[in-house]
Structure formats: structure tokens, C-alpha cells
Amino acid sequence: MALFSLPEDTPVGSHVYTLNGTDPEGDPVSYHISFDPSARSVFSIDPNFGNITLIEELDREREGEIEAIISISDGLNLVAEKVTILVTDANDEVPRFIQEPYIVQVPEDIPAGSSIFKVHAMDKDTGSGGSVTYFLQNIQSTKFAMDHHSGVLRLRAETTLDYEKAQAHFVIVVAKDGGGRLRGADVVFSATTTVTVYVEDVQDMAPVFVGTPYYGYVYEDTVPVGDLPLSPVFPPDASCPVLQATSRSPCWTWLSSALAHPPHTEADSGSGQQGSEVLTVVAMDGDRGKPNHILYSLLNGSDGAFEINETSGAILVTQSPAQLRREVYELHVQVTEVSSAGSPAVQATVPVTIRIVDLNNHPPTFYGESGPQNRFELSMYEHPPQGEILRGLKITVNDSDQGANAKFNLRMVGPGGIFRVVPQTVLNEAQVTIIVENSAAIDFEKFKLLTFKLLAIEVSTPEKFSSTADVLIQLLDTNDNVPKFTSHYYIARIPENAPGGSNVVAVTAVDPDTGPWGEVRYSIYGSGADLFLVHPSTGIICTQPWANLDAEATARYNFYVKAEDMEGRYSLAEVFITLLDVNDHYPQFGKSIQEKTMVLGTSVKIEATDQDAEEPNNLVDYSITHAEPANVFDIDAYTGEIRLKNSIRSLDSLNNVTCNRDYTWSLEVQAKDRGSPSFSTTALLKIDIIDTEMLSQNSMDTFLMQTKDNPMKAVGVLAGIMAIIVATTVLISTATFWRNKKTNKVLPVRRVLRKRPSPAPHAVHIEWLKFNKTKATAKFLLREDPPNENCNKNSLGSLPVPRAPVPPPLPRMVPSMGAAPWTVPTVSGSLTPLQPQQSSKPKALESPIQSALVSELRQKFEKSVANKAYL
């Protein structure tokens, strides 16, 4: 490994190298690899075969060399060597722009082809993967060009900037590396950034008239202005609202007020002469960034009938209507910019039409920026603030009549409660303002396009002239919706033996928003989510690659899944996962070899348990797999009860089957579950068979046989007998007490106590369940205590002492003298014949039946007590 190198994109788990070594003595060798404590352990080694495996990802940009110590040992001797593994480069790094964000200010008169800005991106890879070239997105629609190698942003040749058309440009720059190999494939990485170019205004635009075309009307009652100088309507400074207006709305709102209240000069007031303003021409510097002052003048067409205020642009009539010879006057108004130095600069002219009218012959008319218009369109984002003005709509409504003939109402026709129009009553002309009334109803998900009609109808005229204009509002989407799951709950079932990475359930959340706002990312959390993971884009929930499910340990999991959009809006749903049981446990007997005693005509029962969680995997069927001869026993497949065949009714019948009469029967029994595939367990069962006729001669044997499978039953019987004795004693004592109390009404002054001679102690020696060589039998031994003397000092006479009821008859014991012990004949058999053994000599006062039955009873009793103590 001295000259070994490894690409940094080598997959984790790859076999990268194999060490090979031998021992001169021929002993087996083992291989080892270690690293510096401060370094990562990126490799593991098979100590037997020397295979080196990559266990952590490599990154050349972070760690170009890996130092390791490899060693070989035969158990006694160790040879170690330090090696250096070189990590070679792969194209795994993305170019990154430096010193973002990029913002630059450029004057609008910058020459074409000039350099504006330089961007720089770096790629940590080497070779072609580390070289970066630059490109522009949407190159066909941009005014800029990019040098592919240096990253210099230039203004295109034969292209100029215009502050009045676009005050800012957003240029998207793409940085791409030279490409290279990554995990066996050719890949190219790229990154994007935005260069914001702000355009600075310069004085290069002529003045712009606001509210064109201009129409004025002169009525019969119009009072002309004398030959006196006019006072300015607007203050000639930069605070003039007309000069600073960027739309028609503020100017025309002010003009309506000015027309309703014509200005007067002190000279007019002094001479008694008054004049009427026809209309006001409004102009502003086209260079809105640094505007100049504006001066107004009339060029021609007035014939001396009109004049204009040079600072405000107000046109006034100087002659009475009777002196006006023409019905229509076409005036030309000139505006001149005055530079900061005070010298005239750029000029512009606009025609003004003034009509001399006297009849109601014009309906209200809607105007746009280019003249009469009956359709207005606007794009706006959904859910604008309450009370916001739709500034993108530049609508003017005008009635060319004068006086009462020019008064009309304005309202909106369409879905109610969404917008409000201002003003609602108009005299002659007004700027139409539409205000948001119900922001919630302006919903992109409900309406992509809102359509209304503006209706203008005259108020006081008999003709009731009217006109309409369509207003179309195209809504733009915003991120105003939360992702919502198709269901509040998701229920899934998966087998417990499903491998890691198995799909469990697919959740789906929908975000009605469009574009990036409608993209949903999924995640899970909760106490039951440790063994699962969710794909962030598809919503597919699967098990962890390392997950090991076990229905017997945990059968159900529940956790929460979260759907989140790009701005953090989210919703939750609950996931319930149930593990389906798989037959993965064998039935288990309590002991590998069980001993049972069978009374002829009764059955013995075997039991096995299966730890699987559900049916039928935990249901067990029983069978006898091997017995010689095979025609002696039957077994219930469902309960495990083993009986002799119906043809065997006595020990003689059983003796006819086999000649081995003194051995225990050995059966090989099988417990098999009902799962698929099925599992089974076998056990060796030993059965002693006892004749019922012989057993009936001893009542104690009978009792023990009846309770051999339930040792607690024997304890219950003994406890019941003792309870009866105690209850009887309590009743007799209580009756004696009340009897003595009733007879002790008069007490003698002097008492003579006569002690009644105590009867001889009635010792009853009950030898019940007396068994030798066992401590458990002491629990079943009953003794009667000698009676206590009872003298009643309160009674005039002596009463008989109460006695306990007669105990149950003693069990018949085997006589100890003169007779041989009684042995129950048994018939035994075995699958594997054993050598016969000589029976031991019988002991005095001990029955072989009692000894065998009590021994089995003791084992079951101790097992039962141990189980209850555990629970």
C-alpha cells in the first residue's frame, strides 16, 4: 500500500485493497489496521483474509492523504508499517460565487460595450473540474454580455440603458465547471447568482405631459379675465405636487378642486373683475430621478382669447363667450425645462382642445393614457392589503358637457364587496381610483381573472347618458396556502420480517400554490418514528435500512408526518403502522422430557406454547410421532390430551400388547404450529399407567390422583376443612358465651370455685399425607392441640367444655407388621428399551403409589407457587 491511491468518490463499503502475508513457521496470521487518534478511521480490515473496506466517505478537499498503520501478527510476533494513501480528486464540488450579493449602479448614458462589473466563482476541484466558465441566462432578452473566462459583465454593443424604461436590471449569471468523472459518470456542476444593476438617471429626456389628451370647455356664464397679471396657482418650487407627480391621479384630483374654486388675484378683487380657468396642463420632467423645473407658454391658436400661467399651466379665458367666434379652439402649449443653472433646456409641446358648448351632447367617457378606452387590464398579487389603491390602473372619466350636464355617478358592476371605486360622484372629470375592499376574496386559487365593469351615468339630465369600461385584473400567485394532507390519518400494515428499506405507505399533501411555493417537503417525528424514514419529495414512508421489526416486541407504531413548503408553512398527519405477525417462533414444551402418571380410563395432558403474536401462528396441534407399539395411545390434536385406545380397558389388555410390564412408557410427541411455513418441536414423554381398581382401595391415593394436575386443589380442600373447623368452634363459643351471660343475673357475695377435673387429653394423631424424605409433606400434616381448661367464674354451675367437631376419618395406612407392602401393578414401555432394575425393598408405613403421586404433586405444587410468585 506504499503507492496506493483511491478516488474520493469511492462508495462506502467498497473492497479497496487486500493485504497478503505469510508466517515462516506456517502459523496462521491476522491483519490489522489503525489510525492516528486525531484522524478518522476510514478503513476496516478483515483480520483473517486481509480485505480492506472503505467505511467512511472520502473528501480530497478536506483530507488529501490518509495515514494508516497496517500490521500482521501470528499471535506472538507483530510486524507493523506506516503507509500513506493518496486521495485522488473527483468532480464533486460545485462552483461558489464569492462576495455576494452583487449590486452595481451604472449611469444610464454609459457607452455601449463598457465593462460594468466582474463576478468571481471558485471550484475546489482540480483539473478541468476546478476550472470555471461564466454564462448568462436568457441571453436573448438581456442588454448585457458576459466574458466566459474572466467573468466581466459588459453592456452589449449597440445597446443603451434607459432609466425611464427600466430603473433596475437583474442579470442571472451561471458559473459552470469544466466537468469530470464522479462515481463512474461524467458530471458538470453549475451555480447561479444574480447581479442587480441599478440605472442612475441623467438629464436626457424631454418633459412629459400628464393626463393627455387635454380638453377644455367654455360655458355661457364664463367670466373672462381682464388684462391684469395672474397670480400663480402653484408655488414655483420643487414642492409643487404637479411637478413631483408620477401619475395622473394626484394631478387630476387637484385639478378638480382647482376647477371648482378658480383662483383670484388681488387686482381682480379690487377691480371687480373675475376670470374662469378652463383647464390645467400638467407636465413633468421625463428624468424622474433628477427633475428640473417646468415653465409653460402658449405658442399659437388662441387668437388672444386664452392665456396660460407659466408656472402652473392653468389656461384661462380672456374673452366672454359671446366674443368667441369659433366653436373649437386648438391651442399648442409649450413646456420648457429650466436647468439648475437657470438656463432653458429641453422643450415639449402638446395640443389642447377647448370647446365652446352650451348643450348636453356628450356622455361620460373613460380615458386611458393613450386616449378614450373601454378596456383596462392590470396584473396584481393576490390578497393585497385592505384599502390598497390599484395604482396600475390609470383611468380618467370625463363628461365634455358643462355644469349640471357634466355631473354623473360612478360605480362598479360585478362581484360585490371586493373593490370600491372613488369618487362615486364626478363633476366633469375625475381620476378613477379603485380601492381594495375585501382582501380575502382576491384569491388566486379561486379566481385567476377578476372582471368588473365601470359604469358612469349622468345624474340630473333627462337623457341619462352613460358609458361602461371593462376592468380585467389578472391575479398573481403568492404563498398563502398551507400544504394539506389528503387524510388526517394513514394506516398501514407491514410484515414483521420485511427487510430494511421496505416501502410502508405513501402520504400525499397538496399545496394549491403554484411554482416553488407549491412544492412540499415531508418529514416525520415522534416516539415511533425511529425505525422509519420518509422520502422528502415523494412522501413514501419506508423502514430504516437497519430496522429489525418484531411483532412480538412491538406490534404497533404511530408517529406524525409533516408536510412543509419552502417558507415553513406546514400541516401534520398521524401515521399508524401495524406489524403483521410472521410465523418465526417454534412451539416450546415446558420441559424437554415430561413425566406423567395415567390412571386407567383417564387422560394426561401435555402443553406447548408458541410465542408468535397472532393466530394461526400461535395455535399448536399435537401428535405422537413415535411409539412402539403404535396402537396403544391416542392424542387429541387440539388439546394435547393423551388417552389409551378404546380397546384397552385394563392392565391385562395392555399386557397383551407388550411383554415389558415393568417399564415406563416413552412416547415421542410433537407440537406443531399452524403457521406457514409451519414449525414443530418434539419431546420425550414418560407415562406411568396405574389401574383404577387397585387405586380405589386407598382413598388417599384416589385423592392425590384427582389433584395431581392441580396441586392448589389439594391446598384448597385442606384449607376448606380447617375453615369449617374454625367456624364451628366460633359458633359454639359464641353460643356458650350468650348462655352464660343470661344465667348470671344475681352474683353471690362469695363464690366457691370448684375445679372440674380435666379429662384426659384426647390426642388424635393424624398421620395424613405422611411421606418420608420430603419437606413439602410437612405442609400437609395436621395435628390437634390438647384442649385448654375453661372455668367460668360468672356462672353458678359448671358447663361442659365445647368440643371441636369430629375430624374426617383417617386414611388407611399400610400395616407395618405381619403383612407385605401393597404394590400397584403397572405396565411400562419405552421407545428405547432399558435394562430392568430390581425394585427396592418397601419401607414401613409407606405406599409406592403415595410416594409416586405425592412426588408428582409436590413438583406441580412448587412449580405453581413459583409461577405465582413471579407474577
Automatic annotation (TrEMBL):
This is Cadherin-related family member 1. GO terms for cellular component: adherens junction; catenin complex. Interacts with PROM1. InterPro entries: Cadherin, Cadherin-like_dom, Cadherin-like_sf, Cadherin_CS. Keywords: Calcium, Cell adhesion, Membrane, Receptor, Repeat, Signal, Transmembrane, Transmembrane helix. Its main location: membrane. It is a single-pass membrane protein. Pfam families: Cadherin (PF00028). The keyword Electron transport does not apply. The chain crosses the membrane at residues 714-738. One of its GO terms (biological process) is homophilic cell adhesion via plasma membrane adhesion molecules. Signal peptide: none annotated. The keyword Protein transport does not apply. Potential calcium-dependent cell-adhesion protein. May be required for the structural integrity of the outer segment (OS) of photoreceptor cells. It is found in: Membrane. Residues 4-97, 98-209, 275-366, 372-485, 486-589, 597-703 form the Cadherin domain. GO terms for molecular function: beta-catenin binding; cadherin binding; calcium ion binding.
